[in-house]
Amino acid sequence: MKDENLNKGIRGTYRVLIVICALLVVIAIGSVYFFEKTDADLVEIDNSIIDPEKIENGVHLRTGFIDAIGMQETITNCTSCHSAQLVIQNRMNKERWQTTIKWMQETQNLWELGDNEDIIIDYLVKNYPPSSKGRREALTNVEWYELKD
Amino acid sequence: MKRRFFIEKTTLAAMTTVVGAELVFGAKIPIGYTPLALQDPDPFKLFSKDNRMSVLNSKPWNIEAKAHLLDDKITPNKFMFIRNNGLIPENIDASSWTLTIDGESVKEKKTYTLADLKAKFRVHTYQLTLECGGNGRSEFDPPAKGNQWTIGAVSCAKWTGVRLRDVLEDAGIKDDAVYIGYHAADIHLSRNPEKEPISRGAPMAKVMQEETLLAFQMNGKDIPLAHGYPLRLVAGGWPASVSGKWINRISIRNKEHDGAKMTGTAYRVPCKPVAPGEKVADEDMCIIESMPVKSLITYPMSGAILKKGQKLNIRGHAWAGELEVAKMEYSIDFGSTWISCSLDKPANRLAWQHFSASVDFPKEGYYEVWSRATDSQGKAQPMLVPGWNPKGYLNNACHRIAVKIS
Fold first, then answer.
1. ipTM score of the complex?
2. Chain B residues in contact with A145 (beta carbon < 8 A)
């Protein structure tokens, strides 16, 4: 008798728990519908902001820079005024980077780089070398699609 | 690969404490503007741009279109390129915005509110081609410094405003006036308030043209923030950097304007042609004025596969800076033969012109359709990238699309 009562008690508790769980599911689904945030309430965030140092597949996620010697110096000195994209887009040799740095120091408030100048330029020349394009390149990366009349 | 997720604005405050003081911009910024506070916000939402546009640079913002996105006869905001030299001004109040006319060659320094400008001067609307001087820079070899624009830094929207000439004449132009220089509310990248990101201008001949406007509307609405709200200088056919955004002062100068990006190598090309990669002294660089003749095939998108016998109807736009486009041709055999396209007159001077053609292909295979415009003085687009210059300006090489006949 005692065991039966105990079993009944356990079963009862389970039933209550199941009802509570079901209620929670309904509330959760409901809240998604009824309290869904409008676009205006949401802000898109790049997850790398959460972890500003994260490296994935050899690329620093926050900036897009290739992870190699000199990257940290480049981030520190080159991305407080402009984005890393502007650096990555540009392919120059050592001499032209020197001229560019001098121009930024003369007109754009860039500070003296000291020993970091060579470290940064080496990093850029090695990881982002200019490629020869000739007078006109072939069309590449064409996405083919069927064109109906 | 970048992964993204969404958070509520309320948690943004908490986030910024984690990220650092530099990113705290507060909650006063209007909805849709808030993401500027973040390192890599969604520019498409921020500026109401189509998400097929290409972001070249997020600080400062530089975004370009693709050829097939520019198919509209009048470019809508969503497909209009953004070229910024500095940071977009914060907290603009159009009701208190003023424009001051000053400089060595103004008879009387004068200040106007936007309401003054609208009430006092006749309002005009023109469709005007604005192309970045560096559009096409990515093709130069050796590479030229700056944002690597491909082909999408061009637009032709309808601009509404008052003639710059009318306003300057109201303040009075002295006989020794040579140039104007604009000043604007944008912020230098270093955030040094003493520095201007860009302060360019134009010689009086361009300034006095009917189509040179102080515009307060684009395509019939307030100018979008990224394009110069609430007041923009618009000088069609010249490098778009002449068309200063967020204008609050115009100086009538008695000499060539010497503001930021007027001097040195900015928006200049060698006065005499140079070999690729050659060093050019600053004094041998000349200011770019009218942009060269150019065209874009905006339909179809590159990569079309057609059945044998199927005709291809192409269309696009052509423009020629200060001049009109006189002739438009296409080639499917890499320039061995050229066939005429039909070409419309411009909606007004300095507006781009629309062309179209129906193309037949002789047999199966890979083709490229090349387009070539010729201006009213007989100058045509080159098939190769034109003369190398240190800053990579004025690439007006023929546009082409790839086509396969199966």
1. 0.85
2. 301, 303-305
